[in-house]
Amino acid sequence: MRPAYVVRRIGFYVLICAITLFFAVPMLWIASAPFDASPGLGVHWPDWTLENVRKTLDHPYAMHSMVNSLLICVTTAVAVTAFAALASYALSRVRIPGRDALLYGLLLLSSVVTGTAAMVPIFVMMYQLGLIDSRFGVALVMTGGLLPAAIFILKDFVDAVPKSYEESARVFGASTGQILRDVVLPVARPGLATIMVWAFVNSWGNFLVPFLLIRSIEKQPGAVLMQTLTDEGGSVNLQVLPVFSLLFSIPVVVLYLLVNSRYGFRFHGGIKS
Amino acid sequence: MTSATAPARDRAPARDVAGLGVGRALGFVAPAMLLIGAFLVFPALWTIYIGITNYRLTGVEAVSPSIVGLSNYTKALNDALFHNALWLTLLFVLGSAIIGQNILGFTLAWVLRRTRPVVRRTVEAFTLLAWILPSTVVAYLWVAFFDRDGGTLNGILGTPGTAWLIDYPMACLVVFNTWRGTAFSMMLYSSALQAVPPSQLESARMVGASGWQTLRDIVFPHIRGHVLTNTLLISLWTANDFSPFLLTKGGPNHESETVPVYIYNVALQGGELGYSSAISFLLLIANLLVSLVYLRLLRRRS
């Protein structure tokens, strides 16, 4: 009994350590290489320096691509949140004819029409509309792609908000506009914040859409610039890429931690484009 | 995309408490529907049309494409590279989603369920980090990890000079995607495991059931539905995943060219927009079938 127990415990911790190492080891590089005087592709204890950070800040496109990412993702996040909020409120509170079919269709759309399955027609469409190489065009495509899922998540959220607030406001004679602005909006704020973060994180990590639609390097968002720099290779890029990877990851991690601590649940972000 | 995990639970009658009215409600829904219609539904339907033309990126067919009927589809039937892409996608889904993410995710959920919070949080933090980091960053991390000269893997194994991404591209992709996506299965299974009645686990221990027996006879019947829906969802995501492009670009010599990468290469490298649309349409149909099964399973469970 006793030795068997000890063996089991040891096996248990060996398993946990092995799994943790599997997840951690590929990540170590992003912690060591940015501050290493001679950065390579392998992980080793760095010869501390901030030279790479300076190189990255001086890079002609690196910081610029962060601004591009920010432009695209803020536009997308705001548009997704605004349009999804309007639609989900109406779908939750008003019985519009054909509502259930519409909701079912949206649910299907969110998983069926993926970026990869739609890349060719989207490319052709944007090409014919003259929206190739336009950051606004990228934000539009991302907004369209994220909206069905956003409407669904928000509708679940609005459904859970008790209707009694709106009813009592109505009893006291508030107009529809007042109810929406002063009652519904404040109550729905956590849901809206979550959706905004979710949309931001999703578009921040999206590689395929800007990769298809953006041509010039000065308009590339960070996700695409990383690929451009990787393809170029060279020792300068080996100094820039680690720092850039780190900087580019920070917003996602910070936002994730924020949502997780504020609202206590895990949003499903960053895995699919 | 994720909302697919949140099924419509609402069966309560909608009451128009703010006095919106059907007219204004339609106005609220319209902008979202316009965007979804223009950038999601229209492209999906348009693949059908482009798929029966010989439309190309450049040349005569770029200016005036003509209808070629189903010849793109008959071409796909005989295209060895397309068959290769299908086979590799199948391997990728089977290895990294159905086996890799599923089993590792369940193992983590099961093992971490009763460990000390410090241990659990540490392990979860790394798995979640792998999941939330931007795809270009993780792809670069793994390119560095697998690198021939000075990559960490060669350092650990003492095999300098092995070009993993060139010699074993599919195995690398399977490991990469298992690493990338396990967090989702882990979270899903940890919440599913909470639905297993502790009293049943307790009685299993009292009668001296082994760990394997407990899993098979008590845990599994409770979470069977979750295993099915989870497998469908991660398979769908994996089959549509574009990150293999970031690691290998489909190479060397088409050895890791999964369907998404193949579509990209045919469309934008080869310029055959018509043919790649036909393949995209096949992918859409496959997605539709999987999603329909998935939604049916969800509905039956609730």
UniProtKB/TrEMBL annotation, chain A:
Membrane-spanning segments: 12-31, 66-89, 101-124, 136-154, 195-217, 237-259
An example Gene Ontology CC term for this record: plasma membrane
ABC transmembrane type-1 domain span: 66-259
Subcellular location: Cell membrane
Main location: membrane
Its membrane topology: Multi-pass membrane protein
Example GO BP: transmembrane transport
PROSITE patterns: ABC_TM1 (PS50928)
Keywords tagged on the record: Cell membrane, Membrane, Sugar transport, Transmembrane, Transmembrane helix, Transport
One Pfam family it belongs to: BPD_transp_1
Family indicated by similarity: Belongs to the binding-protein-dependent transport system permease family. MalFG subfamily.
Protein name: Carbohydrate ABC transporter permease
Species for this entry: Kribbella soli
TrEMBL record, chain B:
PROSITE patterns in alphabetical order: ABC_TM1
GO BP annotations listed: transmembrane transport
GO cellular component: plasma membrane
Signal peptide coordinates: none
Keyword Isomerase among record annotations: no
Membrane-traversing stretches: 25-49, 85-111, 123-145, 273-295
Location (main, coarse): membrane
Domain ABC transmembrane type-1 stretches: 87-294
Stored SUPFAM superfamilies: MetI-like
Alphabetized UniProt keyword annotations: Cell membrane, Membrane, Transmembrane, Transmembrane helix, Transport
Membership in a protein family: Belongs to the binding-protein-dependent transport system permease family.
Name of the protein in question: Sugar ABC transporter permease
Protein source organism: Kribbella soli
